[in-house]
Amino acid sequence: MYLKNSKTVVIKIGSSLLINEKKIIRKKWLSEFAKDIKHLKDDNKNIILVSSGAIALGCKKLNLSKKNLKLDKSQAVASIGQIELMNLFNKTFSNKKISISQILLTLEDTEQRRRAINAKRTFDNLFKLSFVPVVNENDSIATSEIKYGDNDRLASRVAQISSADCLILLSDVDGLYTKNPKINKNAELIKEIKNIDINIEKIAKKSIGEHGTGGMKTKIDAAKVCQLSGCSMAIANGMYQRPIKKILENNECTWFLPKVSKLDARKKWIISSISPKGELVIDDGAINALKKGNSLLATGIKKIYGKFNKGDHVKILDKNMKEYARGLSSFTSDEISKIQGQHSNKINELLGYVSKSEVVHKDDMVEV
Ligand code: GLU
After folding, report:
1. How many domains does the chain have?
2. How far is the CA of 111 from the centre of ligand 1 (A)?
3. Is 1 inside any structural domain?
4. Residue 162 has pLDDT above 80, yes or no
């Protein structure tokens, strides 16, 4: 079972699950859902929630209609509604002894490697603290050209960045059916999809859309991102009480299976397209440490070539200038020239500010 076997799980909640057409908050649903999350956490899983609802809750508070809302006004509404949303989560989840935090992302945060890597670190640290991050798009800042606009695709990027094993898109449809189930008695729920071929695209196009922003199109787009990130993705009906329990018990949903392994996907993402901006020559001790799967520390760096920024792609060479690995530098080239050959506990003093201790973190490095 994909969910059962996952360590890191991203769950996307559409607005229609939190607030109904009459603008009534579905409090009972959310407190039952918190039990689902408690259950997953007790099973030692890392959970990230991607929740819509800022605009819907902002509209409720201001007594406005979501239709006809212009972008600039919706940004103000989102800013008002986001607090409502987090208050709702905080109140409901703290009753179940679950601690939550908030992360607001823009498209740029997920597309730029450096910011994305920083976001991953933040997720990892929140997991260590046993918090459940609740993510939404930063609707108050993002303008239409630089906006996801739907949380399906945002959730798939969050799954990719956090190296999640599975993403569950909870909406108000059961998944993808072979035909429209409302008019065809013999319509069947498609349980597993390996390839998103023309046929699947056609079915998705025709399928009855949910009320939220995305509909089926953005869910298929999200599935494509997941397939290439080594992440399984489900479209499931969240309208039931305890929808996650239901997936664990009956598996009544549509699963999209990954096309590559998670590790291969991440490595590819690290070294893809951009050309290395610099080179770090390291000593034998550091090479041995890397072979054992450790991060690269300043102490093992002998020489540095090129000018680069934090998050830039660098080559890691042995003393004979043979390339051993590639990775993303946590420091600028100027910073490395100040700390090379030094012990990690001296870094803060040498730079004059508190900093990370790994020059290239093991998770951001690929052997070549
Ligand atoms: N970020 C939007 C909100 O919180 C929702 C986007 C969506 O419906 O997917 O209201």
Report:
1. 2
2. 19
3. no
4. yes
